[in-house]
C-alpha cells in the first residue's frame, strides 16, 4: 500500500518535474555553458574563453551602473510596496461603508498590463500638461520632467512598480489578517492593550509566513519587471534607469552578444538565489507556522 502511494505521488509530480527541468534547469545550464564561450558570428564558431566574459564585466561601466541602479531600485520598491500593501490591508481589514469599493480600487492596478500602466504614468510625468505638472503649476511650482532627468528617472520608474505591486501584495496580507483569531483581539482589549502593541506583539508575528512569502515575490519582481522601462525610459537618460535585466535584453537582442548576455544572466540568477536563500535563513527564526 505504501509503495502504491509512493508511485501515485511520483506520477503526479512527474509532469511538473519535466516542465521544470526542461524550461528552467536545462536552459540555465546551457546559459552557463554559453557564458564560457564567445558569441558565434557568421562562419566564426564560438571559442572557449573561460571567465573572459565575467572579467569583462569588471571594466564595463554600463554593467556597474546597472548593478547600482538595480540595487537602489530593488531596495526602494521592495520596502515601499510591502509597507504600503500592509498599510492598505490594515485599512480595509474592517467593516465600513464602501470597503468593497476601496479594496477593488487598491487591487485594480494589479490587473492592468504593465505596458498600459507605463503609458498611464508617462501621461502623469509628461512635462507641461501631465497630471503631476498640473498639480505643481496649481501650487506655483516650476515644471519638471521626472522621467527625463538623470536624478529622478530611476525613482520615477520605481514609483510605477510600487503602484502596481502594492495592491497584489495587499491581497495576501488581507488574507493573513483574517486568520488572526478574534479571541486574541478581545483578550487584548480586556487587558487594555493598545492597537500598536497588539499589532507589534501579536498580529505581526502571526502574519510572518505571509510576510516572508510576499518579500520573496517582491525581490523576484524587483529584478524581473522591466516592461515599463521599455516604454518609459529605455534605460536612459545616460543609463540613469538602466536595470540589469534590461541590460541583458539589450546585450542579447539588440547587440546580439549572446555570450556576454549569458554571463550577465548568470550574475542575475546568482543574485536572486543568494537573496532568496538569505531571506529564508534570516527570517526562519521569526516565522511561526503554528
TrEMBL record:
GO BP, sorted A to Z: transmembrane transport
PROSITE patterns: ABC_TM1
Topology of the protein relative to the lipid bilayer: Multi-pass membrane protein
Transmembrane segments annotated in the record for this chain: 7-26, 72-92, 104-124, 153-177, 198-220, 259-282
InterPro entries hit by this protein: ABC_transporter_permease (IPR051393), MetI-like (IPR000515), MetI-like_sf (IPR035906)
Main location: membrane
Domain ABC transmembrane type-1: 67-277
A Pfam family the protein falls into: BPD_transp_1
GO cellular component: a single term: plasma membrane
Location of this chain's protein in the cell: Cell membrane
Keyword Plastid annotated: no
Record key words, sorted: Cell membrane, Membrane, Transmembrane, Transmembrane helix, Transport
PANTHER family reported in the protein's UniProt record: ABC TRANSPORTER PERMEASE PROTEIN, INNER MEMBRANE ABC TRANSPORTER PERMEASE PROTEIN YCJO
Family per similarity comment: Belongs to the binding-protein-dependent transport system permease family.
Name assigned to this protein: sn-glycerol 3-phosphate transport system permease protein
Organism whose genome encodes this protein: Donghicola tyrosinivorans
